[in-house]
């Protein structure tokens, strides 16, 4: 069972295929198994690496909430790359993994060939921030009190998950069953230490404006907590593009795997061809009609 020693713990990881390294970072409700449609597709062309974050067996599950944070999630990813002797990689993250990829790009841009930040931004809107943190603590307590079966039954029916259930009941059921298998301790600690404490994407504006790594933002159009943050990231990051997948929620890589894979594949192809640069400043005219040099 391959494990990487990082930050005093060990992370379980898997590899498939060969070629340029492509790392996938999972969401809170998933683990490396939730990337299976992407592993099967991209391992035909890339060296695909998936891993379980700390708190997700068979990775180690620290019992102290101080072992979990947004900073630590990024350092774990760096540690995994060092263990695998990777100088650079393409990185793809969904939700919690999207936050990790975004912060990785901000802190270690020299290690990133490209960034895919999907389903990212939940809990960022200022007027919803207090409610978000209240929900985080309430959910963590529920996990500790009732266990993962109860948590999975609740969480998998959330307002950004019902789209998956409506479209693909069998795929959604597998997602819910895998969620129920997660560690209650690891899930509660992750909720408190990572989700509950991570900064809003709006707080990162100045840093994002300096980011020059090719970036793709992906969101479902019914993933309400992530729609506005997705638009914000697109406008703040000079090298960012935005894909919005219609009639879709949060679990977009499983809910719409073909559209998700195609968008990422097209993005990676453009990056590798040297065709994904900063936004043309002429597209930022104050006028919808006049070029910037003719706008009075």
From TrEMBL:
GO terms for cellular component: membrane. Residues 20-257 form the AB hydrolase-1 domain. The keyword Nuclease does not apply. Gene3D superfamilies: alpha/beta hydrolase. GO terms for molecular function: hydrolase activity. The keyword Hydrolase applies. Keywords: Hydrolase. PANTHER family: AB HYDROLASE SUPERFAMILY PROTEIN YCLE (PTHR43798:SF31), MONOACYLGLYCEROL LIPASE (PTHR43798). This is Alpha/beta hydrolase. It comes from Candidatus Entotheonella gemina.
